[in-house]
Amino acid sequence: MLLNNNVTEFILLGLTQDPVKKKILFVFFLLSYLGTLLGNSLIIVTIKTSRALGSPMYFFLFYLSLSDTCFCTAIAPRVIADALQKTITISFSDCIIQIFSFHLFGCLEVLILMLMAVDRCVAICKPLHYMSIMNRRVCSVLVALAWVASGVHSSVQIFLTLRLPFCGPNVIDHYLCDLHPLLKLACTDTYVTNLLLVSNSGALCIMSFVVLMFSYVIILHSLRNHSAEGRRKALSTCISHITVVILFFVPCTFIYTRPATTFSMDKMITVFYTIGTPLLNPLIYTLRNAEVKNAMRKLWSKKLISDNQR
């Protein structure tokens, strides 16, 4: 419920006020977003159409690419359009929707990465029972729970934010609507609300971090009993996953597990994990994964053959 809310829209200061730099940012964001859509769509289509990629690992990779696409789409299109505007405004309702979708798909990505670590742990530590433990029904339930948990996380964030009164000013020193810069505009003491928001995000980050670290400690301990080739293949897959975790997890932890203070670097860090990471993830998983590359080649070959037969 909104309390004494006289603000109907917010003004976003963006990344820069320089017209030339705005045009450069427009090109950068547009190319990054198109690259994200292309890369993740290619992975999604490849996994859906390839029988060779039917293992649980690729089931989770499918949803990671889907969450990447949705996460970036919650931010990028508006940022691209705003880069050409002299004054950037966003309505109160659109701001709340952006925060909700942003945290929904961001949380989903964190949980999918956690499930992928658990999947690798089972695959390496229990190879003979892997397919029975991580069967399609179990994987589907785990992903469904990740969606539900993400929805709960985002709903809590929005509920706590909507209880605050906003009566002016309405200028957000950011290029998107997010919790920390928005809390600074509330016409009341936000200490308790901020503590609850940080606890919500902090619990998610800490729980995910503990599960991730525990999984990889078990994996590294288990690899001692594998052959050199088995260790090489397992480590190659794990390194790809750890790289993605670091690229996404570290910036998010820095932004959302501290008190409501803002730093000059916050905007660039946010750009990195909202625009950069969804673009890099497909490259990391395809360049280091022979099975995905082979499946993509077969998919491309089939398309060329079908086009030539027309």
TrEMBL record:
Transmembrane parts of this sequence: 24-45, 57-76, 96-118, 138-160, 201-223, 235-256, 268-287
Domain G-protein coupled receptors family 1 profile: 39-285
Highest taxon listed in the record's lineage: Eukaryota
Annotated localization: Cell membrane; Membrane
Family: Belongs to the G-protein coupled receptor 1 family.
Protein name: Olfactory receptor
Organism for this UniProt entry: Loxodonta africana
Keywords, in A-Z order: Cell membrane, G-protein coupled receptor, Membrane, Olfaction, Receptor, Sensory transduction, Transducer, Transmembrane, Transmembrane helix
Pfam families for this protein: 7tm_4
SUPFAM superfamilies xref list: Family A G protein-coupled receptor-like
Entry membrane topology: Multi-pass membrane protein
Listed GO MF terms: G protein-coupled receptor activity; olfactory receptor activity
Keyword field contains Membrane: yes
Primary location: membrane
Record carries keyword Membrane: yes
CC annotations in GO: plasma membrane
